[in-house]
Amino acid sequence: MAGHAVPLLEMTGISKRYPGVVALDAVSLEVGAGEIVALIGENGAGKSTLMKILGGVAQRDAGTVRVAGQAVEITSPLEASKLGIEFIHQELSVLDNLDVAANIFLRREPTLGGWLAPLKLIDRQRIYAEADVFLRKVGLNISSRTQLSQLSIAQQQQVEIARALSAGARIVIMDEPTSSLTLSETKRLLELIKELKAHDVSVIYISHRLDEVQEIADRVVGLRDGRNAGTLARAEINRDRMVRMMVGRELKDFYVQGETSGTATRETEWFQVRKLRTAKYPQQSVSFNVAQGEVLGFAGLVGAGRSEIMRAIFGVDEMLDAELALGGQALTIKSPQDAIAAGIYLAPEDRRAAGLVVDFSVRENISLPGLRRYAKSYLVNSAQESATAKEMCRTINIKTPSPEVKAANLSGGNQQKVVLAKWLALSPKVLIFDEPTRGIDVGAKAEIYALMRNLAANGVAIIAISSDMEEVLGISDRIAVMHEGKITGILKRDEFSEEAVMRLATGG
Question: DSSP letters along 464-487, please?
Fold first, then answer.
């Protein structure tokens, strides 16, 4: 470690095995004081397992862990915290029924002294005063008496960081910290991470967003298949090298373009949407069409109304007004059942909450929307159901030991494939993707893109909402850009540029 004779953290030869799986095979990681180290790799590469071991959630089978040069045994999250290691998970571990101060000092509440000491009563005055100090440190200008439920996701995340600092954190682990944040919130978080570095707090940053990694990381450590895949110093960090290190191959055809925006032999106005209004922007209406075999991207800033439009088309949200047609036939959609009957399907942004029943098996999730196809006299033909699930797993490469595995146990990319599989089994005419690759790794992204293109090549009309500028430019034949509930422009491929999209997204 350049500039650090003794690294703050040394993990050497860490191995971890689960039944039938080698999760980690002699992995090593070093982090210096005040260093930002990005940990990258595909889902299943071992990142989470390595951090669970560091955070005391899991125990290693082999290897050593040293903090400030001293060998340590981290048997629990509490032991990790005592060593100055704090883990900020992707799913925030805050309690929204408590106020901010209570969350910051949870299980570490200061108590009243003197003759009241034996009663162990919380010192309310002190807890609020000290919590306010840590809120200022993370740049959160609110009262520590504020109920947590009143805060945005980004603010709740800042509360978690304040809690880590109040516990004396020397190493903060952040797992996909920007996955639910807006662009401005992401920018603020990255600035906060730089401020932590300036105060000698080390950060281990896990993210699939390689542009963020490139902006803030002092060093990048890659994992692949449970092993070290390489290290990049600050001067070596760029997207191509990170991708190569993660997947072990070049991604020259990362985005596969179609031949044209619809072909002469296909219906150019296959799916028509006219004068659609939703409750979010009742004064605005949206009109567009999608050709057979076309990928129509939807871009815009958070809150522009893209998801609301698609949820209305799928029948989840109410349409105040609309004229819809598919293949020249007028449609009336008042529920998801109406959309499914018409062959219009939605892969939602939050796949775990809205796209899957995570406690169901892969098989059950795939068959659920078309369960009547497998039922006879109210009894499900489980053999036919299993055969379809196995075929879909083979067709789109769902990595699971068996279709009987619960969806909750799959990686993000494979969960997204299960969402797609349930619709592909029903032969879609229009397939809507809302943030199709959110939170999944670069290799799985390439597979999702190829799948979208294959569907388009077979005549499916694809609509894809994406907040990732590179993605929406890469996958689309045309891009509809929204601002405050209306489409401000539709760009053809020869008009694509980041500047053109942002100009329209900001109302230009």
Answer: EE-S-HHHHHHH-SEEEEEETTEE
Q: Are 198 and 231 in contact (CB under 8 A)?
A: no
- Asked whether 289 and 273 are in contact (CB, 8 A), the reply is yes
Contact by Cβ (8 Å): 262, 457 = no
Q: What is the pLDDT of residues 170-205, one digit of tens each?
A: 999 988 888 767 777 888 889 889 988 998 999 999
| pLDDT at position 250 over 70 | no
- Spell out the domains of the chain, with CATH numbers in brackets: 9-247 (3.40.50.300), 271-505 (3.40.50.300)
| Angstrom distance (rounded) from CA 257 to CA 253 | 9
**Which one-letter DSSP state was computed for residue 273?**
E
Distances (CA, A) of 226 to 6, 246, 358, 400, 409: 26, 11, 25, 17, 18
pTM of the predicted structure, to 2 decimals: 0.63
Give yes or no for a contact between 171 and 84, defined as CB atoms under 8 angstroms apart.
Answer: yes
Q: Find the helix or strand (DSSP H, E) in which 134 lies.
A: helix 124-137
Rounded to the nearest 10 degrees, the angle between the axes of helix 442-457 and helix 239-247 is 90
The string of pLDDT tens digits covering residues 139-172 is 888 898 998 888 888 888 888 888 888 888 899 9
What one-character-per-residue DSSP string does 177-246 give? TTTT--HHHHHHHHHHHHHHHHTT-EEEEE-S-HHHHHHH-SEEEEEETTEEEEEEEGGG--HHHHHHHH
pLDDT tens-place string over residues 39-94? 998 767 889 899 999 999 999 999 999 999 999 999 999 899 999 999 887 667 77
Residue with tokens 């993605």: 471
